[in-house]
Sequence to fold (122 residues):
Amino acid sequence: MEVKSIENNIPVLYKAPENPSKVDWARINKLYVTVQHNKVKICGHKFHPYNDPRTSCQHCWVTYFQNHGEVTKMCDEIFRNDGPEVLIRLRGERFVKMFKRFMATLAKFKEEQENSSGIQQS
Ligand SMILES: [Zn+2]
Fold:
């Protein structure tokens, strides 16, 4: 099977093999069927734009929360107004654990920024 890339990087299948082997089918599927997801740069895990990360990898979760501003905002409101138990019931324990970590990191980051800007002003 001959596969070449044209200028805008869209792969083109020039000639379909007469008796495609398993490897050929894998290539064809990869080109035309499989949805390719981006990877999280720091850890290299695949990033799925819609699903919660399946791992407990902190980088994946940080990327998830950063890319889902609305979800994060909504969870923050539920967490503050209704408490963590409600959020656990809605999204599961791992989600809430990672959410708490993310929010704590954000708070710390914000605090550090405020402190450093305070030093610069005085
Ligand atoms: Zn990861």
